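Morning. Coffee machine broken again, so started the prediction first thing and wrote up yesterday's gels while waiting. Chain of 259 residues, entered below exactly as on the submission form.
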Amino acid sequence: MSELFCSVAGEGPPLLLVHGVGGTGGFWEDVVDRLAPSFTCAAVDLEDFGRSPRLTTQKTVAERAAPLAALIDELSLCPAVVVGHSLGGMVAQELALAAPGRVGALVLCNTIPRATDRVREINAALGALALEHGSAALAEAMAPGLFGPGALEGTEKARARFVADCGAADPAALAGALQAIMGFDALGRLGGVGVPALVVAGEHEPNCDDQRLLATALGRGTFAVVAGAGHMAPAEAPDAFSELVRGFLGAEAPGGARA
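Came back before lunch.
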């Protein structure tokens, strides 16, 4: 039985929504508002974040994916469309590889197929900052680089939520998640995923080339860009992001049924 905290809303084909470092399931609030008329939206708090249990030992990205398979079974979401942002997108890749029957499709937003030397360098510095100066300091340091240059409909709310959620996280949890990303590499295995995938990047996402690579490596991946957005594209531009998801999954506008 899964001990993960998960908030469920809506009715229809199941979506499992997985947040990134420093976030919680609340990251998806505005996306859920738009998709719940057409889908069952289950927004999970990963271990070490929000209301889910704290880790007692360090876990890799693959190990962080394992409890989600149990959650899918427990909530009768199988097969789920797994929607992952940043770290959540890496977790979604590992989940699709380890539990293919539970994943019907992937929506991978602002994420990467493997950690590069640059990612490892940045994450090591961010992890040290969290441990030395605390979670609030990390949140304030990260926030300016997470958003596009102009305010979109969700930018102000998304920024405030990130600073609050990340600032409330345990510094060791943040450092551990950043360390897990440093060891992540699914690139050579992604051809085995075998399900349709939508890869979404913000126009101003620093890792946009890696996301194009991710879409290509998946074989059945489609690449899309959210105009004006940065790393937090789903929360910055929930209207545009939700339209991409609906189009990918063949759903009508809010209130409609899946095609």
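Residues 117-133 form the longest helix (17 residues). Going to sketch it on the whiteboard this afternoon.
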